[in-house]
Amino acid sequence: MTDFFSHSVSERLQQAVELIGQAGKMALRAFQQISPEQIQYKGPQDFLTQTDTEIEIYLKQQLRQHFPMDEVLGEETGGELSDSMWVLDPIDGTANFARGIPHFCLALAYLLQGKTQFGIILDPCHQDLYIAQLGRGATLNGRPVRVSATETFSVASLELGWSARIANARYLSLLDGLMRAGGNVRRGACGALGLAWVATGRTDAYLELHMNPWDCLAGMLLVSEAGGAINDYLAAGGLERGGKVVVSNRALAGQIGHIADVPLKISHD
């Protein structure tokens, strides 16, 4: 009898890496040919392109073909929650993608019984493949990665994501707190890559007051498996309704958590 466990996590990971590689080629071709008439809007500052939908449909079809008992939740076409499920963002950083800025990615995570088992982020423009597997560490293009060792805000590089779902006053208050602490704050408009950059030590922390699960689950596992600190997004109902995301290297975790008013935990040595 076929059930959720007829395919192992490692089998799913192997297949997912192959599929996201193919989807990344689709995204890169489309990016090189993007034109203004292909850009649509789901709402204020919420971009949508034909490529978002095409890649999501492709990945959903492929995942269902290989793992028919799994559910697939995507940003553009939705889906159902399940004990064995995939969560995907076909293009994170669509505003960058649509404007010809090579800072976007594809993100895919697999959850089993409510826990993220692995996450994959592909930056097709730079051929950077980030992979994290629960309890097995994080890699960039096959090489282990680790969060930064930055200890003070005076030399810290931070990223603060923005969401139209949150009042500007709360965003500006958080920005003010980070700047008063002495941090250099930037925004790259691609949350999944922002998280991946914390895992690799390029950035010391990433904060956003509201992220959907397809934007953050893969990246949060990357940070955790790279030795960083993260908030308990899933326990706070993030899979169902999204929520606050705060990740940091170890040394700054206490201060970052205090400024963001959320406890951070380190779960991997």
Automatic annotation (TrEMBL):
Chain segments annotated as coiled-coil in the UniProt record: none
EC number(s) per entry: 3.1.3.25
Binding annotation for Mg(2+): 75, 89, 91-92, 215
UniProtKB keywords: Hydrolase, Magnesium, Metal-binding, Transcription, Transcription antitermination, Transcription regulation
Source domain of life: Bacteria
Catalysed reaction, written as an equation: a myo-inositol phosphate + H2O = myo-inositol + phosphate
Gene Ontology biological process terms, A to Z: inositol metabolic process; signal transduction; transcription antitermination
EC primary class: hydrolase
Cross-referenced Pfam families: Inositol_P (PF00459)
Gene Ontology molecular function terms on file: inositol monophosphate 1-phosphatase activity; metal ion binding
Named cofactor requirement(s): Mg(2+)
Family: Belongs to the inositol monophosphatase superfamily.
Protein name: Inositol-1-monophosphatase
